[in-house]
Specification:
Length: 89
């Protein structure tokens, strides 16, 4: 497994640029669509749950947002620097 952004909270919340990204492990079904879109940000762990990688800042914020939008169960929450929910609204 790659290096995690936060080993204590592998699915977030973590700050990536101006975004705060959180994966709800209770909702995540391991579809890996987020990995396909933002492979430098997300990977599936041994439980097939999305975790946030240390290399997350290498994916543009727009790509991270798109990865959240393609999640079939909306398990990824994104907030802006003011704490306002960007996705899902």
């Amino acid at each position: 497994m790659s290096q995690l952004k936060d080993s204590q909270n592998p699915s977030g919340p973590v700050v990536i640029g101006k975004l705060k990204v959180t994966v709800d492990r209770n909702i995540c079904i391991g579809a890996s669509t987020c990995v396909a879109i933002a492979s430098k940000t997300f990977e599936l762990d041994t439980e097939a749950k999305a975790v946030i990688l240390n290399s997350a800042g290498q994916d543009p914020e727009e790509i991270v947002l798109n990865a959240a939008k393609v999640c079939p169960v909306a398990a990824i929450t994104i907030e802006n620097e003011k704490g306002e929910k960007v996705y899902p609204k």
